[in-house]
Amino acid sequence: MPELWIDILRILDGTLRLATPLILCAMAGLVSERSGVIDIGLEGKLLAGAFAAAATASLTGSAWLGLMMAIVVAMSLSAVHAFACITHRGEQIISGVAVNILASGLTVVIGIALFQQGGQTPPLGTDERFRPIALPLSETLSGVPYLGPLYAELISGHNLLVYVALMAVAVVWWMLYRTTFGLRLRAVGEAPEAVDSAGISVTWLCYRGVLIAGLLCGIAGAYLSTAHGAGFVREMSAGKGFIALAAMIFGKWRPGLALVACLLFGFLDTVAPRLQGVELPLIGEAPVALIPVLPYVFTVILLAGFFGRAVPPRALGTPYVKEH
Amino acid sequence: MTPLPRWAEIGLLPLVNVALALFFSGLVIALIGEDPFHALSVMLQGAFVYPGSLGYTLYYTTNFVFTGLAVAVAFHAMLFNIGGEGQAMLGGLGVALACLALDPYMPGIVVIPVAILGAAAFGAAWAFIPGWLQAYRGSHIVITTIMFNFIAAGLMVWLLSGLLRSGGQGSPQTRFFAEGAWLPRVHEILNAIGIKAASSPLNLSFIIALLACVGVWLLIWRTKFGYALRAMGHSPDAAAYAGIPVRRMTVIAMAISGALAGCMALNEILGVQHKLVLNFSAGYGFTGIAVALMGRNHPVGIVLASLLFGALYQGGGELDFEFKTITREMVLVIQGLIILFSGALANMMVPILIRAVGRRKADA
What we know:
The structure holds 2 protein chains of 2 kinds. By secondary structure, chain A is mostly helical. In chain A, 67% of the residues lie in helices and 2% in strands. In chain A, the strands form 2 sheets. In chain A, strands 1-2 form a two-stranded antiparallel ribbon. Chain A has a two-stranded antiparallel sheet with strand order 3-4. The mean pLDDT of chain B is 90. The longest helix of chain B is centred in the middle third of the chain and has 30 residues, at 108-137.
């Protein structure tokens, strides 16, 4: 078996692991923004979800209860965002900033009150986490050249939430493009007045869009602290919510393209440490410190229309005022 | 604009919103089993009473004045500059480059003005690009400025771990600037003229911040440019129809905003650290949004709101010493709640207040 193939598989495997929270958050942002509500609070919901999952798992010993609590907490933050932006037509950016700052404060304050460990949760044991799942036959097939390791390394052996993230892309796509609800949700992000004149509640549609975003961010949070990691560390979201936002825009507000963007950004994250000290042709020593900014640079360039064009939903960011 | 009487809109509504934020903050403190009133008194003492504490409070205030003004100037043109963090970092780079290049050869009296220009110019440049991209390429300024915060952070890590790192040091930072290029501390000046003052990091950039307030007031309310800026903020279409070059104004407004945010580095880098370090912007850029909101984008309001946040930051540090369970992260919670109630939910209380104090005369 060529070493190179194993190396490639390991990189792709790492890509998938690092892309998982991005995928979930990007889908969250996508559903919210398709309904016309900007969500820069992805980061905060991700962080709060991660804390809720780890804290609950640590206190109850159940990763599943942790996941449920993460979803409840992230959806509560979404509800605050929705209440401010939809009910009171507040500035969506400001509400998002508030959610982010609140999450980074509350996770530490409550964390210290519960565990007295400087804002961390105690390390989680095996039962308190989502463990890797070996798909059927991965052992047996691992002898098959190329495809065996591909199956065993890359496709099998992830925890449940990685598969959930991939399924979320399909579900979001199906929901947006194949259901009545999705059609209405997209319509409300483009032309809320049309939806309103059809007798459908704009408010309730937007609320559902924003709450679904909370649900997905909650799962992403649980992934960070109870699947990928083993416990909560302060600020553990570390900007992933914003990278997901960039990926969503880079994916032009479409689920499939956003998935590709998340995988690309996850890939950059995976190879960056491997490029440490590597000499590149023309550039010289690889500027590893600059690799983390590439997702943002790409997104800025794309938004500026220098390659392709990313057009946001037309009514994005403007609260709907019903005409009297 | 709300249908409230003017005094209620300017005075009562912001107070009610802050009170709501403080009420929920108190609730959080009570929920984790501490006494909110005790916490409040600890914070007030920490912010104003202990020797030197007022200096520390005003030192934090300085940062908020700069970032608050930055948000406000852009906001008058209805532009959302949430890139204050990145612009402040680049401002720090401007200060550092000026000092590192000049301080071996020139006295402080020359280096300091150049460093101030450096802070403003680099901050302005970092905001100019998102402004230009919005005006001429149609990208959304909010998204671009967020992205530019992260790009700036990456750039600083790269520069400080490579080109700008001083030899023989493990941590990513530049060498110290020559002492002559440090902004004088206020307590040193006061002591020199015979007034006793406790030592604190408060430095001359506080005066620069107050001058910036006057400058912004003049610019927005006393110049043709400011008039055009506000007209554009009310209605870009009407402004364009009236012959105001909306695109060029967008770019200039962002550049001024960025210059102000960049000047935050004067306090932190030229005034206190005396070397360029990572992450010195520490969220002040984001807090600037809250400051501008609470201060209703007016310099006087911004100074008052900055003072509140300065006191929160300084007093919040005191919580660490006094309580086992409350730490300075509580300040983040209070800050988040203030942004929520004074910003996103700013008009929630309007209907209730109308019932209490009636409508504005002209509307009645």
